[in-house]
Structure formats: C-alpha cells, structure tokens
Specification:
alpha/beta; Rossmann fold; five-stranded parallel sheet; 5 helices; 5 strands; globular
Length: 121
C-alpha cells in the first residue's frame, strides 16, 4: 500500500516547513508550495489524498477556491483549512464549507491528528 499523499499550501515558508516536517515524520508523502497557482497545477496532476491549505494565498485562487477545485473530481479530497483569522473559520463553518479547520497558531501534533483522521475516513 502506498503512503498517503498530502499537499500543503502555505505562503509562510517557516510555517510550511514545520507542517511538512511534522507530516513527513508521521509517515506521509508530502508535497508543498507557497502559492495557489502552483497548487492548482499539482492538484491537476492528481494523486493526493488530503489537501492542507491556508485561506489567504498569493496567486489567482484562495484556499476555499482550491478546495472547490478538488470537489469537481470523482473523489473529492478532504481538506484542512488553516488561518490566523478565526473569524474566517467561523464564517466557513456557518456557511457549511466541508473540511477540518485549524486556527494558527496550532500544535503540529494537532495538524497530524487532523490529517490522520481525514485520511482514514
């Protein structure tokens, strides 16, 4: 069985590196990028099991739009949204946007357990 593939999309390099390291140490195959344009190209190539994305990103799409892109597939990807703006997470929840949500700052073990829960669902 191949390892679960995760795409991490985060524009802050230090935070992205921490996320990638934590997920890789947990045994996941992780790709990462800092902008939505590159993320869209990676998602088009397929093969990912979970998308972890910031809400605000450089590029043409925001995190919600990236997630919506995955819902056009036969099998939509589970998504973990991360942001430093808890008010945005609250609005996403109220709007019924599917996905897990983490407010920055968060513990890396919280990220890993969230991804694990989604990957196994």
């Amino acid at each position: 069985m191949s390892p679960t593939r995760i795409l991490v999309v985060e524009d802050e390099p230090f935070i992205r590196a921490l996320m990638v390291e934590a997920l890789a140490e947990a045994g996941y195959d992780v790709d990462d990028t800092g902008n939505s344009d590159a993320a869209a190209r990676l998602l088009d190539a397929d093969g990912y099991n979970v998308l972890v994305t910031d809400l605000h990103l450089p590029g043409k799409l925001n995190g919600v739009e990236l997630a919506e892109r995955t819902h056009a597939r036969e099998t939509p990807l589970p998504v973990v949204f991360v942001t430093a703006r808890p008010d945005l997470l609250a609005r996403l929840r109220q709007a019924g946007v599917p996905g897990a949500m983490l407010s920055k700052p968060f513990a890396m073990d919280e990220l890993v357990s969230t991804v694990q829960r989604l990957a196994e669902a």
